[in-house]
């Protein structure tokens, strides 16, 4: 399903879904430069890139940079490279992000490299040594593989997504790759295809970047974003994927072989802790806590004044529902966990609260009252809340 993102040109993306969620890139070290504030949070929306200091109780915006297009997913690489999609077009860009000294006006953003790839890319994932970049092109039904070694931005190949449309028209009338998610071993990308109800396994061995498996999900699932569990081992034991259309989390048990990954579905659970999704709801992002004990999912279009953030405990690959908290706005498209593991950052497309930082309690549950917020007015009118938010 594509939920309208009003900051995107009318009609251009009317049938495409919001993009994720963590869904986060590789963690960086925010304290690697002693002249920087201890915590900076990067946020993007159509037409703008924002940088804010975060001190545990408030956001202080230090940069609002105008850019063309819709950088709805970005990846930051130390010390100053920012890779950005344009969900409205077919260009991929590298910006130089000078983070400054934390004072307003000291940070700068300048475009350095632009290249053409597939249209409608909504997620980027690095390989293990940050020499290749994989883009999931929701709008084009393809996967792009880029050479980014030495600051290059050269398209190596574009791979059409294999499969057939799912049963839920019009959201599944075509292929819609939504995320390129590198496994802990560093060999395989899982690429969730919302339109074809499958998970493509992209093998990076010998720099071939070939789809070696196409794993079906439950029909009508609409796989959007996923996480490998556990996240800090050589080989994951499970892969969890959020179904945007059916509002479920599918847990898949994994086995590694010389030629791929075996997958066996072991659990299906609602993204709503009550077990029942409201009519028209659309699950969004999913993140796994670094402790490998807790999973968090956003529930969108719930019909309430505020959508929700749901918490689940995970043990041995089995999910147990915790509780949900209100996100303070509508359409929470992406969420990410702070470097310390003590906060969740979340972006609501519509306010009143657009950027939100929630605390994480010792038991993994989320504080009902946010630690910090930024109102929608900081980003613009209705629909301009940040689709991307993460600490750098």
UniProtKB/TrEMBL annotation:
Q: Name one Pfam family in it.
A: Lactonase
**Which is one GO molecular function term here?**
6-phosphogluconolactonase activity
Query: InterPro entries, per this entry?
Result: Cycloisomerase_2, Haem_d1_sf, Lactonase_7-beta_prop, WD40/YVTN_repeat-like_dom_sf
Name the segments for region: Disordered. 159-182
Signal sequence bounds: none
Q: Which residues cross the membrane?
A: none
- Similarity comment: Belongs to the cycloisomerase 2 family.
Q: What is this protein called?
A: 6-phosphogluconolactonase
Q: List the source organism.
A: Clonostachys solani
């Amino acid at each position: 399903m594509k939920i309208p993102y009003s900051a995107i040109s009318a009609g251009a993306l009317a049938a495409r879904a919001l993009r994720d969620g963590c869904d986060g890139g590789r963690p960086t070290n925010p304290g690697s430069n002693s002249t920087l504030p201890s915590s900076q949070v990067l946020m993007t929306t159509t037409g703008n890139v924002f940088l804010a200091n975060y001190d545990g109780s408030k956001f202080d915006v230090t940069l609002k940079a105008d850019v063309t297009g819709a950088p709805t997913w970005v990846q930051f690489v130390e010390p100053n490279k920012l890779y950005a999609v344009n969900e409205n077009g077919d260009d991929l860009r590298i910006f130089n992000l000078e983070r400054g000294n934390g004072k307003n006006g000291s940070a700068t953003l300048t475009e350095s490299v632009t290249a053409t790839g597939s249209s409608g890319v909504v997620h980027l994932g690095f390989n293990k040594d940050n020499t290749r970049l994989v883009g999931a092109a929701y709008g084009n039904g393809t996967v792009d593989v880029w050479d980014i070694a030495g600051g290059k931005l050269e398209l190596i190949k574009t791979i059409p997504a294999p499969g057939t449309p799912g049963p839920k028209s019009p959201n599944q009338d075509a292929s819609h790759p939504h995320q390129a998610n590198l496994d802990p071993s560093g060999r395989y990308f899982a690429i969730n295809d919302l339109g074809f109800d499958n998970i493509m396994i992209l093998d990076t061995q010998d720099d071939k970047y070939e789809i070696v498996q196409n794993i079906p999900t439950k029909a009508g699932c609409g796989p959007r974003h996923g996480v490998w569990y556990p996240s800090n081992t050589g080989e994951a034991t499970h892969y969890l994927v959020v179904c945007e259309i059916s509002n479920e989390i599918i847990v898949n048990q994994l086995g590694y072989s010389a030629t791929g990954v075996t997958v066996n579905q072991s659990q299906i659970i609602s993204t709503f802790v009550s077990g029942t999704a409201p009519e028209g709801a659309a699950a969004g992002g999913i993140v796994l806590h670094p402790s490998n004990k807790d999973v968090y999912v956003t529930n969108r279009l719930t019909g309430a004044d505020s959508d929700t953030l749901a918490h689940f405990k995970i043990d041995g690959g089995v999910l147990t529902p915790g509780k949900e908290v209100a996100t303070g706005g509508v359409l929470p498209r992406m969420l990410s966990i702070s470097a310390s593991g003590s906060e969740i950052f979340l972006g609501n497309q519509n306010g009143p609260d657009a950027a939100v930082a929630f605390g994480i309690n010792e038991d993994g549950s989320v504080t009902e009252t946010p630690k910090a917020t930024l109102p929608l007015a900081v980003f613009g009118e209705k629909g301009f809340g940040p689709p991307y938010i993460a600490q750098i």
